[in-house]
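Field guide to reading this record: the first block holds the primary sequence, the second block holds the structure written as discrete tokens, and the final block holds curator observations. Each block starts with its own label. This record concerns Benzoyl-CoA reductase/2-hydroxyglutaryl-CoA dehydratase subunit BcrC/BadD/HgdB, catalogued under organism Hypnocyclicus thermotrophus.

BLOCK 1 — SEQUENCE
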Amino acid sequence: MKKIGITTTVPIEVLLAAGYKVVDLNNVFIVSDDYREYIHDAEKYGFPKSMCAWIKGIYSACISEGIKEVVAVLEGDCSNTKVLLELFKEKGIKLYPFSYPHSHNLEDIKKEIDKFMSLFNVTLEEVENIRWEINNIREKARKIDELTLQGKVSGFENHILQLCLSDFDGDLDNYSKFLDEKLKEIIKRTPDIKKLNLGLIGVPTMFSDLHEFVEKFDSKIVYNEVPREFAFPRAFKYDNIYEQYYDYTYPYDIDYRIKELEKQINERKIDGIIHYTQSFCHRAMEDIIIKNRLNIPVLNIEGDKDDRLDARTKLRIEAFLDMLLDLKKRSNR
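BLOCK 2 — STRUCTURE
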């Protein structure tokens, strides 16, 4: 089966209908034991130090995996992707563009997805058949998300199991069976309820120990914003692929995204938000709007190349959690 790389979540249904094995280059990069080497290789090639580590990792992961075709999102994701495409072109990689229109208009989204289907010579019927098949797998991830609130799933498990739905680990059947086994095991667990419910929002974090660290302070991340969006938890509500990708909050304006954030904060009884931003990323400026709009304490932490929390960031998180615990005690008096 021919492989195709993606730089972020795209309508994977189209690619699967066209017979591809989809590889999320972000996942290849971040789960690698040699993830630092990916960054180093990109910098050796000429990437500046002052550039997002995710972009460097995506580039090197693509080259090291021998990917010859890539779908890149030109609108609605990283502002550096256009230049990344030029670098891929220099390496002889075949490129397919896709955009999430800034207008966030259903008709404009339909045009983009129709154009995408035309690129890969697949029909809407073929795509819809695949969509219903993989939405059954997404439903399993949604159940795991619900069990997180019941204290049976750790914050990190919630994060990684949903994150992998961007490409289903390259194999729909195997990932579906894996989730089945995981659900059986999870249901048998004794609930572990913490005093504080936290939300983690922003681009996927480089810090692999963040979820584990907060759990040392009687706290748990019960809402991983972007991985949950990658898992399309509301997919079954919609009649077609156009509506499903209209509902996807990550690539559109922040007003639409904040509506979903507010909903999840209320439903999950979230006490505080950790907003992760990536060094040199334009999305870091969204922190200003988020702090102004959300009626809940928000801590912004920034990551660059390291996959472990540094001492300063640990101190800031600990102080934030202490404050939240104090606030909770006062409100319960």
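BLOCK 3 — OBSERVATIONS
Residues 195 and 218 are 6 Å apart (CA to CA).
Strands lie at 3-6, 21-24, 69-75, 94-99, 196-202, 219-224, 272-278, 298-303.
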